[in-house]
Amino acid sequence: MLKVTLIGTGNISKFLFKVLSDHPEVAIVQVLGRSDKALEHFRDRTAVSIDLREIKKADVYILAISDEAIGEVAHSLEIGSGLLVHTAGSIPMEVLPARVRRGVLYPLQTLSGILPEKMMDIPICIEASEEEDYLILEKLAHFISPRVEHINSDQRKHLHLAAVFANNFSNHLFFLSSEICEDHGVDFDLIRPLIRESYTKVLSQSPYDAQTGPARRGDNKTMDAHLEMLRSPRLKEIYELLSKSIQNTYGKEL
Amino acid sequence: MLKVTLIGTGNISKFLFKVLSDHPEVAIVQVLGRSDKALEHFRDRTAVSIDLREIKKADVYILAISDEAIGEVAHSLEIGSGLLVHTAGSIPMEVLPARVRRGVLYPLQTLSGILPEKMMDIPICIEASEEEDYLILEKLAHFISPRVEHINSDQRKHLHLAAVFANNFSNHLFFLSSEICEDHGVDFDLIRPLIRESYTKVLSQSPYDAQTGPARRGDNKTMDAHLEMLRSPRLKEIYELLSKSIQNTYGKEL
């Protein structure tokens, strides 16, 4: 039985609690949080506390708190011989104190309101300093997802950066697209099948091969017409920069 | 029985041929193309010709050719009393000669190698000048997809522009994301579940509400760290511009 303590009460903590508390080989011995209100969610099913000094003994302590708080909270914990991990994409493992066994368990997902049922193939990226700690994290990560990857701190921060491009920035483009639709009395729902196509294509081929559109074709006439239609300087700038970037990407072929 | 002639032999023509030639209420009477080789695909199943003067009588003539060629080819056709439509997103209906009944049948999809089986809910955007022509196009469009929308030329060109943002530009961000992964020895496949999440979220909520990430949170520390990590000036510029655009979008809330 693996004893786990969760520190933090946000989305990642709730997600891990939900997935791990049902697992027969895990016992969540405690959840620590900043307020009684935030701990409400967990109170009925495990021990809770707002006092970090009341931390109970566990095999793994999972810090699921905001990036900025990780260093300070980690250094204030008295956890003896347990393994301390954080769950942040862009924070190196070395932010955790060198005096403890340390590691990272990073679920590569935004975890914003998506239910665990749907997340069965999210990659769990793990890192540790010692072989035995890798084994513990591998076991724990496999309780969450079948997909477990060894990713070091440098790779992890680049993975997080890559995720910003693929997820956050593409969502913003969906938003800009919806604004253009709205401004011209067109239902954005018409665009949704196209977004599905983007996604479906990128499952089976590389984004390099999947690229279509005026910039890819070098269709300057359409690009000029589009720039003419865009009244907002911000949209114009984004259109120009991304089109230029696409043309640079395929430049050698033209 | 609706008699249809296809002019053009590319993806859209092949798609329309596949969907319509199986339909009991449609007869594809002819496919016209620029070369015998391009017509090979259709030869066994309908009349074909490379000579526009040999055009047969039909109820609807569908121009499925490149944007630039539409005006010239349309003006050279002798089609009598038939209805002439093009299939282009960014070309106004008025490019077709005023002397004929004219319209537009625009399948809002990139049609690049996706099989018709998967395209059952793609929106077909139709436009015509006369009520009776709308009725014909509605009927024909419903043979292709259950989703038929009346979209005028101004709306259609903005829809096409919106599609560039949602589809072409987001695919390029997937590519940039894959480049970052590759440069740091990380498998881009790890990112794919995140892309699925983007898509799943945008099905059920507005992209405005779905936005996450450092720019949305106003997390300057992470954004500075990301800019530091990006060595390519082009990626830096894209990161800065899209982050600024996200911050502007949510600025009033901060």
From TrEMBL, chains A, B:
<dbReference type="Pfam" id="PF10728">
    <property type="entry name" value="DUF2520"/>
</dbReference>
<feature type="domain" description="DUF2520">
    <location>
        <begin position="122"/>
        <end position="246"/>
    </location>
</feature>
<dbReference type="InterPro" id="IPR037108">
    <property type="entry name" value="TM1727-like_C_sf"/>
</dbReference>
<dbReference type="InterPro" id="IPR008927">
    <property type="entry name" value="6-PGluconate_DH-like_C_sf"/>
</dbReference>
<protein>
    <submittedName>
        <fullName>DUF2520 domain-containing protein</fullName>
    </submittedName>
</protein>
<dbReference type="InterPro" id="IPR018931">
    <property type="entry name" value="DUF2520"/>
</dbReference>
<dbReference type="InterPro" id="IPR036291">
    <property type="entry name" value="NAD(P)-bd_dom_sf"/>
</dbReference>
